[in-house]
Design brief:
The chain is α/β, with parallel strands linked by helices. The chain contains eight helices and seven strands.
């Protein structure tokens, strides 16, 4: 079985940091591939993750949030067929639409007959800036939270309790069924 974990979130929310911790601590011993699709300073995240010894695949032929049906799906199929990982951690760009990725992944079983694939969705949300991000980019922000099984609130250190409560309420208002971790630990959102 191949497990695919999509870790979405706006630029600077802490996606790469969470992926690094999950890969080096929670999923230790598994053969992991990280697929990234970021614009701008790609090399920084790539170097950061490479230090853990994890395989990294860069999706550069297109944006996986804009054209997931072609570029992303083809890259994913190739990674599974050639690398045979236990787990793939996908880090889409900060402006990814999770709903588009979900549609694309519906075709994955047809492209990989005989391969069992399980997909899970995590959204990393900057607790200190989430209200502004929702106000400025409601379509993308809401889509990422709505499509996730778990939400990891980052940047909570030193945040006033009422601001943290407001961030949790904002997330809960968008996705009432998501598991929310606001204590700075990833253990409560680990995908089993």
């Amino acid at each position: 079985m191949v497990r695919i974990d999509i870790v979405s979130g706006f630029l600077g929310a802490g996606k790469t940091t969470l992926i690094k911790r999950l890969a080096s601590e929670a999923f230790r011993g598994e053969k992991i591939i990280v697929m990234q699709n970021e614009f701008g300073e790609v090399g920084i995240d790539r170097d950061f993750l490479a230090a853990t010894g994890i395989g990294i695949t860069q999706v550069s032929a297109g944006c996986i949030c804009c054209s997931p049906d072609a570029d992303f799906l083809e890259s994913l199929v190739n990674v599974i067929q050639w690398n045979r990982p236990d787990r793939i951690l996908v880090e889409p760009s900060g402006m990814a639409k999770v709903s588009m990725l979900k549609l694309a992944l519906e075709d994955l079983p047809l492209r990989l007959p005989g391969t069992e694939v399980r997909t899970d969705w995590i959204c990393v949300v900057d607790a200190a800036r989430c209200a502004v991000q929702l106000r400025n980019l409601p379509e993308f922000f809401s889509d990422q939270i709505r499509g996730s099984r778990a939400v990891f609130l980052s940047r909570t250190a030193g945040l006033a309790p009422e601001k943290l409560a407001a961030a949790e309420a904002l997330v809960r208002g968008i996705n009432s069924e998501a598991v929310i971790s606001s204590d700075g630990r990833y253990e409560s959102i680990i995908i089993a």
